[in-house]
Every structure is written in structure tokens, then in C-alpha cells.
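[RESIDUES AND BACKBONE]
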Amino acid sequence: MKMKASEQLQFLAKPQRRQDAKKTKKLFLCVFASLRLGETRCLAYSFLLRSCAVSLCVALYLLLAGCGAKGGEPDAKEGAPPPVQVEQEPNADLVKVDKPDQFPLATAATRSVAPELKVTGVVNVDVSRNVPVISLASGRVVEIRAKLGDSVTKGQLLMRVQSSDISGAFSDYRHAVADDVLAHAQLDRAQLLFDKGAIAKKDVEVAQDAEAKAKVDVETAQEHLRVLGADMNHPTATVDITAPISGVIVEQNVTNAGGVKTLDNSPNLFTIADLSSVWIMCDVYENDLANVHMGEQADIKLNAYPDRVFKGLIDNIGPILDPNLRTAKVRLQVQNPGTMRLGMFVTATFHGQTKQVRAVVPATAVLHLHDRDWVYVPNGGNTFRRVGVVGGAMVPPNLQEVTGINPGDRVVANALVLQNTAEQ
């Protein structure tokens, strides 16, 4: 029987391996015999012999390990896993059709638009039109004619308060009037006596001074009553609280039979807001502040009335940023036709000063798939390539702005039909 060259080499190598193993065994026996002999000698020689014996054992172990490794190499190669096969997936952005003429193309048009910045905001009261209602006379509420949310006009009666301050002020006023009458009579009498030479000039001057002081006391008492809100024509202990401006009552802190205190640490009785003009406070990120300028107009849409557009004027850009949100407050002054209510959410659109050129395609050319917008463009031959775009505003008639292609590029006019054909 004939043997291959590799098999002949392995057959010849087996006796040689047996001889190497026998020699190694004899060498181990000699080493151990040397160790036993070294134990009968002095400690110095014993330590030296043991060190040499350990070194020889390590060298022999490494030699045998090397021989075993060489013999095991063919087995390691035979047990290696097969190489991984990678299959190439087809390009999902390419669509091949038999008749490309069935899908008409459209050319992206050019449209110049100003950049827009949309932010959210909240309707707030104009603080210059927010007026508190207070009472300088303390007492007890005897009647309330208005309540929270009512629309009132300037001078309208809101409530009545019975106050001891008013009764005391009227008492002071009556005393002042009586003193003034007496002082005037004494002055007339002194002047008559002086004309007859019965009294000296200084007595007349004293009477004149008393009469002047009495008039001052009367005027002071009258002013005190006016400050407290009393009606000079109806001297009663009840004071009427009226509306200082026309507007809507947005706050009420008083009830029937409740107490009314002075201004020290006491809340307003009512708060009336004139809502004919309101503020809209918008949050604008610091990166967008360069697109917002004082005096510019903004378009405002209410979430409650999305079909109506209001105009607002930028009259303040906050000088302080929110440290957490990194936004600044931008204030818009807006005339309220009666539909805006405090706290409403709005969307404000700021228009840039420089215009940008954008591509416009038919709305049917934009495919909405997997939360993204796509268009199909010719790729040569019978194939079309899908290109990702960002859909923008709708433009009449049935057009849409897109970002991601250039004006003049040709796209499939109906992307949905092409997509459905490719999936079949």
C-alpha cells in the first residue's frame, strides 16, 4: 500500500517521539536521585542542588509543552468556525419600474419667503391697565353690588361700607364749621368795637387770626371726608366704593358682612383690569433673539380660534434670560377685540427682515412615510431615487415648500402612486 509524503513523515516521526520520551523519563530519575543525595550533605550544598533541580524541571516542562503544541496545531485548525457570510441588502431608496413614463414629473419652482420664527406665549393683563379697588375707611361691608368676572364701568357702585371713620370725620367737620361761624361773628364784633374806639387794634388782629384758623379747620375736615370717600351732600356713616376704571373684575377679596381694614397689610377689595389691550408674553430662545427686533409686528393665533390672525407689536425684549430654559421674555402689545382671555395659549410668528429662496413642489409630490417627508427624483433609466426633505408651509394652490432639494429639480408629481407601485 502506498503512503502519501505527509503520512510517511508522521510514521517516521513516531519512533523518534518515543525515544525522546524515554530520554526525558531517565533525566527526571536522575534529578530526583540528585535531590535524595543532596539531603545527606550540608545545608549549603543542599540548597544549591535544589535550586538547580527546580530550574531543570521548569525547562523540561516547557520543552514538553512545546512538543505537545506542535502536535496539536492541525486539530485547532480543523475545529475553527467557518467564516461569516454577509448578504448585501438592496437599496431601499431606489425604485425600479417597467414603465417610468406612467409617472409624470414636476419641476420644483422658486419662492422667496422671509424666515419665520414660531414661539408660544400666554395672554397677560397690561399692568398699566390693572387697577386695585381699596377703601381708606375701615368698617363692615353692608352691601356688595358686583362680583368676580363682572364687567363694570367707571363710577359704578361696587359695594357699601359702614365705617366709624366716616362718622368721626363728619363730627370733626361739624365742629369745624361751628368754630368758623363763631370766629367770624367775633371778628365782626371786634371790628365794630374798634371802629368806635372801644378796643385796641391788636384785639381786632387776634379775632382775624382766629377766624382764619377756623376756615382752615373747615377745609381740612372737608378734605378728610373726600379722602375717605364720603358724600358731602349725604352726611351718613356709610361710604360707597365705586369702580375707578371700566373693565373686568379679575380679583375679589371681600364678602357680605366682612370686615374692611385699612391699607396696612390688607389685600385689595377688588382688582379691575381693562382688557381692551393686553400683553402676550412669549418665550424666545437665546439663539433666536437675533431674529426679533423692537417695533416689529408679529402674527398671533389663539389655540381657541385657529382660523383668526391677530397683529401684535413688539414693545419689549426682556434683558434677563431664564437660567434653566435659556429663554427671554418678549412682550407683544395687542388690541383685544373681546376674544382674548387672560391665560390663553397663543402661537406668535415673527417674520425676518431678509428673504430666503425655497423650492416649491406639488403637495402630492411629498410622501409622508415613517414620520419623515420624501420626494422621488429620476435616477436614470427605469429607476427613481427617494430623497429625504423637510416639508414647509402650504402655498396655494395645492403647493408645499420643501427643504432638501433645489429649485429646478425634477420630482415625481405623485409620490404615493409610485410608492404603492413599488410595494406591489
Observations:
- The chain has four domains: 5-76, 94-111+355-423, 164-236, 272-351.
- The chain is about 35% helix and 30% strand.
- The domain at 164-236 is CATH 1.10.287 (Helix Hairpins).
